[in-house]
């Protein structure tokens, strides 16, 4: 997600699902972590219909706020979003993702992705739902990013590591200016 418009799309979907459908209070849904997270949005015919948020910690990533508008459910959009999320995590070098899922959705999660319930952790509750913790192993990526990666790769926009970035293009401008001086 790179624009305010894309962030607003994620917020609109979450508002419709969590606030309207599940009656989650505003301050619980928008918990202060949105500007620190990475948001993915899935669209059908140019309409945003599903979203999730990712946050990154020292040795793992966390999948949060996965939701799909009611009219778009049953189309396996959660699989598409999660596949993109796990590709992103793998490329960043993460080998583990975690999630806190509504307990009632555990059967869907275990059919959708390879994940396990976190051992010896009781369920817990917030916003009127019971939650479970899951672990999601992430395979290593052949092109994972490291501190030794190309310096231009490290300054490219999030998720666009294989495309030339705007700052690389500035090198040519700087060379032209030096040549003209």
UniProtKB/TrEMBL annotation:
UniProt keyword NAD present: no
Pfam families found in the cross-reference section: Acetyltransf_1
Domain N-acetyltransferase: 1-133
Record GO terms (molecular function): acyltransferase activity
Keyword ATP-binding annotated: no
Superkingdom of origin organism: Bacteria
Keywords: Acyltransferase, Transferase
Coiled coil: none
SUPFAM superfamilies the record matches: Acyl-CoA N-acyltransferases (Nat)
CDD domains: NAT_SF
Matching Gene3D superfamilies: 3.40.630.30
The protein, known as: Acyltransferase
Lineage start: Bacteria, Pseudomonadati, Pseudomonadota, Alphaproteobacteria, Hyphomonadales
């Amino acid at each position: 997600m790179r624009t305010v418009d894309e962030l607003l799309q994620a917020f609109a979907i979450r508002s419709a699902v969590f606030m309207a459908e599940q009656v989650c209070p505003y301050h619980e849904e928008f918990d202060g972590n949105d500007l620190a997270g990475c948001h993915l949005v899935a669209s059908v015919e140019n309409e945003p219909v599903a979203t999730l948020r990712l946050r990154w910690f020292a040795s793992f990533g966390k999948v949060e706020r996965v939701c799909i508008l009611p009219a778009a459910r049953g189309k396996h959009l959660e699989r598409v979003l999660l596949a993109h999320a796990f590709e992103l995590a793998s490329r960043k070098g993460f080998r583990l993702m975690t999630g806190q899922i509504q307990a009632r959705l555990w059967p869907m999660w275990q059919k959708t992705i390879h994940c396990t319930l976190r051992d010896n952790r009781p369920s817990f509750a917030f916003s009127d739902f019971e939650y479970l913790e899951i672990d999601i192993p992430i395979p290593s990526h052949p092109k994972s990013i490291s501190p030794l990666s190309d310096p231009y790769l490290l300054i490219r926009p999030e998720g666009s590591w294989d495309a030339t970035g705007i700052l690389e293009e500035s090198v040519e401008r700087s060379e032209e200016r030096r040549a003209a001086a």
